[in-house]
Every structure is written in C-alpha cells, then in structure tokens.
Amino acid sequence: MAAPTKTDSYGYGYGGYKGSRSPVAEAFRVLRTNLQFAAVDKELKVILVTSASPDEGKSTVVQYLAQAISQTGKKVMTLDADLINPTLHHRFGIPNERGLSNLIVGDADSTVFTTLKDYPNLSVITTGPIPPNSSELLGSARMKHLMDRLREEYDVVIMDTPPILPVTDAVVASSLADGVILVVQAGKTRGGEVRHAQEVLEEAHANLLGVVLNRARRRVNDYYYTRTYGAYSTEPAKPEETPSHP
C-alpha cells in the first residue's frame, strides 16, 4: 500500500522526500554518513531511537533516517516499538490493526510486515494493539527471538521507542540494540533532562551513539534562518539561542 504524501511541521512530506535537496533531506544524509563512521569498530545492525521526554521529534527522525539509509540500497526494517503512543503508522500512512504486539504473543507472522512502494528497500512493522504490559513484552524472550530474526533478514533495523524519562521501555529495549540515538528538541528539552536520560542509558550499559538536535536554527545565508534537523554529536544539547539579524 503506497503511503500518501503528507507534510510535517517542516513542510516536508513523505512522498516528496525521495531525492530531495531540502535542508532536512541533506541533514539526514549527514546523519547517515556519521552512523557509517560510528560503525567502524562495531556493526550497527539495530539502532534504537528515543528521546528524554515526549514530543521531541524522535518518530520523525526514525522515518527520515530509515528512508535515507534505504536509498543506499540497504534493506531496512523500521520497527515501531513505542507500545504506548505509536505514530509511525500515521507517518507512513499504513494500517495498524496488527503488528509488533501480535508478533510477540505469537498471534501473527510476516504478513504484518509492510513494504513501501516508494521505498522498496524499506519495510515497516507497526505496533499493533497497545498492550497493558509494554515493558514486559519488550523484555521478553520472544522479543529477543524476533530481533534475532530481523538481524538475519535486514541490513539495518531502526527501532522507535517511548521517551526515556516517563517509562522504562526504551531502557529495556536498549539491550537489543547495537547503538542508541537520543533526540533532543532545541529550545524545548532542558539540559537536566538530557543529562538524566544519558545517565539512565549509561546505567543500562547502552551504547549511546550521540544526540540528534532537531528544530535548531540553521543559518542559510546572512539574511535569514531556517529550522531543520541539526547537530549529531555526543555532547549534550545546548538550549536554543534566538539569533539577532544583522
């Protein structure tokens, strides 16, 4: 089923991303390249994406990063493991009647895998019905078995998980990943929240790859600014500064 063209708060739609020279598309190509360098010593087959708090843009990062990696010819699986507030089915414009929760309890098979027409190398597993015990499902032996299977069948698996501070799901799922990306929204996420999230991941022995700073102000020329996805680094994000125009 083809996903309809829809725009996000940046004005960039799913259908219009492919081959785009927009600042957003370019930012995700840079992120893709940085991840390739991060994989020099250890292969990054499973990448978990989370945030410190809700509404920081982690699902958008999952979507665009998955699309960017799939354009290189790699076989990519996008897994919505946010079993509390799933959004990837909306972003990709696909149904969510059955998905990850069904797979974990043994009530589904590969028919819940959706391959996207516009991105033939990209597949999606939505959450399916929301369970009452999401962290238990993510930490189950069946979840581990599913991830082992996806590792064999796909070049890269990108997991969307709930924010770290409200619930434990992302920390539980981090044991299944080779690396974790922390999404931070400029001007919204407090430095203390970022540090706390980093500490929680370190205590869980997660491999924190770095931070994606989104909605940062990016200088396009000397006369105006635009918002886009920004820095990728292991340094804590700094609060957004309001620029002064010359």
From TrEMBL:
What NCBIfam families does the record point to?
Answer: eps_fam
Q: What is this protein called?
A: non-specific protein-tyrosine kinase
Family in the record: Belongs to the etk/wzc family.
Q: Where is the AAA domain?
A: 47-187
Spell out the reaction equation it catalyses: L-tyrosyl-[protein] + ATP = O-phospho-L-tyrosyl-[protein] + ADP + H(+)
Keyword Cell membrane on this protein?
A: no
| This protein's UniProt keywords | ATP-binding, Kinase, Nucleotide-binding, Transferase, Tyrosine-protein kinase
Q: One GO CC annotation, please?
A: plasma membrane
Q: What is the lineage of its organism?
A: Bacteria, Pseudomonadati, Caldisericota/Cryosericota group, Candidatus Cryosericota, Candidatus Cryosericia
Gene Ontology molecular function: ATP binding; identical protein binding; non-membrane spanning protein tyrosine kinase activity
Cite a single Pfam family from the UniProt record: AAA_31
Give the EC number(s) listed in the UniProt record: 2.7.10.2
Coiled-coil regions listed: none
